[in-house]
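--- STAGE predict ---
source: upstream dedup step, 1 unique chain passed
mode: sequence only
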Amino acid sequence: ACFNVVDVEPDDVLNMRASYSFQSEIVGTIPPDHQPGSVFPIGVCMPRDRPEPQRWCAVAYESPSGRINGWVKRRFIEDTQCPSSPEEMDRQQLREELNDLLMDMW
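--- STAGE serialize ---
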């Protein structure tokens, strides 16, 4: 799973926090036009007794200068499909070819 940043103005950023609180230190930022697949979950969203938009999620951001781990407010991210890596695309193609071969044998 991956995330897209939503409801953040084009000239603004989504702050990543050291813990799941607005009072926590900002450890990094994610621009709204980040590279697809560069934001992904690394843990759960907390606290679980709150409605989903009010939760904080542990995420990693593969920024141009390296990986940043932190917490972001769930209402500013949405689930999205991760782009496939070349290796995953190769495995998918191999699975499809093997499936076609097996179908031809039957």
